[in-house]
Structures are given as C-alpha cells and as structure tokens.
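re the bet — no i am not wrong, look at it urself. input seq straight from the record:
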Amino acid sequence: MIELIKKLPKAELHLHIEGSLEPELMFRLAKKNNIAIPYKDIEDVRRAYNFTNLQTFLDIYYAGANVLMTKDDFYDFYDLTLEYILKCVEDNVIHTEIFFDPQTHTARGVDFATVITGIKEALADAKEKYGITSCIIMCFLRHLSQEEAFETLEQAMAFKDDIIGVGLDSSELGNPPTKFKEVFKKAKEAGFKLVAHAGEEADFSYIYEALDVLQINRIDHGVQSVKSAALMQRLKDEQMPLTVCPNSNTKPNN
C-alpha cells in the first residue's frame, strides 16, 4: 500500500520552506554567521522536530530561519529548495505550493529580493528538470502589526509575477484575522489570491473571520471547524478547501 501511495501523483499544498531547513545546514550557517542557536548538536535539533504544538514548532522554525543572513546563505536556500524538490520526485509530488515568510528575514536587514531569489530560481529549475509545477505564497507574520504587513506587501509588488498569493501564519492566539482586514483587502485588489492559517490552535471563530472578513480562497489547517456543525456545513456548501496537516494536526495538544 505504501508503494502504491508513493507512485500516485500528488500535490503538496502546505509547505513552509524555511521549516525544511536540515539540521546540518542550520549548524553550518550558524557557525559561519556566528549566530547562537538553542541546540547543542544535530541530534538535539532532530529531537526538537518532534514538536507538540504550534509554539514548539515555531521555536525551531525561527531558530533555523535566523541563521540565514547573507545573500550567499539564500543561495544555500536554493540548494535547500532543490533538496525538497528531490523529495517531491521520490514521492511523485507533481505540484507544490510553497509558503515563505519574508518578514522573518527583512526584519534582520535582509533585502526582500534576496529572500525570494533562491526559492524562485530553484523552483524554475525543478520545472525544467523534473516537470514539477509550483506556486509561491508570501505569508504575513500575524504576531507583527498590519502596518508592517503593508510594508511587506509593497515590497512584494515588484515580484507579483512570482508570487501567486498572500497568506497569514505564525502565532495564532491573540492575533485574529480581523487584525489584517485592510492589508488583505489591498492584496485582493492587487490581484493576489488569499489564504490564511486559521483554526489551528485558536477556536473556530478565527475560521469565520478568515472567511467573512479576509474573504480568503482557502483555509490552511482549519481543524477546529470540527467543533461547529454549522461551520462544517458551510465549508461543504461553499466547497472551501482546507490544507490540513495530518501529522502536526494530530499532535496531543491539538
């Protein structure tokens, strides 16, 4: 059965590219850039990937992202993206949609263009070499302000041909979709597709807000919708897709 599943053509719709940073590359870049990370060795990092909730995932996610500092590092990001593509080839993933978080890097003085270049070039090569199609989705960090999101949207306009949509991720509790109403409105007017992480750790009211306030095209996670029969019926009636993550969304704290 496993071999049959591997052979079936698949699409991967929920992948945070910074989160795929391998422990070996994390340690090499941390040493090169003199960045302290909260792990003593590679095996310690591997153990940290057995996260139990969103925050423990974000802890290792940001620790990895913080070691990316220079333009050359983001060309290592090209290699990282290609490593991910090779896993797609192995599992017969023929289409992938990749999230990236520019604010994680621009806040540390890294230019927006530097952030996206390695990713888009690797994906272009993946299409040419392996026939794998892809899309790039830029996410706003919801623990930051809407004003900062507006700045990021403005920076993204020069790369509109490379970015299919905008999303919303990072720490969910206390950062409801309504917080980003105006920037999502502007993104929609600019022609971007809209997605949002909602109902991952917060209650299902966040899913309603994503639908009604942000007017999104897709819910990422959305697992708390099972706690509302009315919402489940609405998602069915509207044929609203959810990109649920079977591994992380079945952790004990979820």
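see?? The chain has eleven helices and seven strands. told u. also The longest helix spans residues 71-90. so pay up
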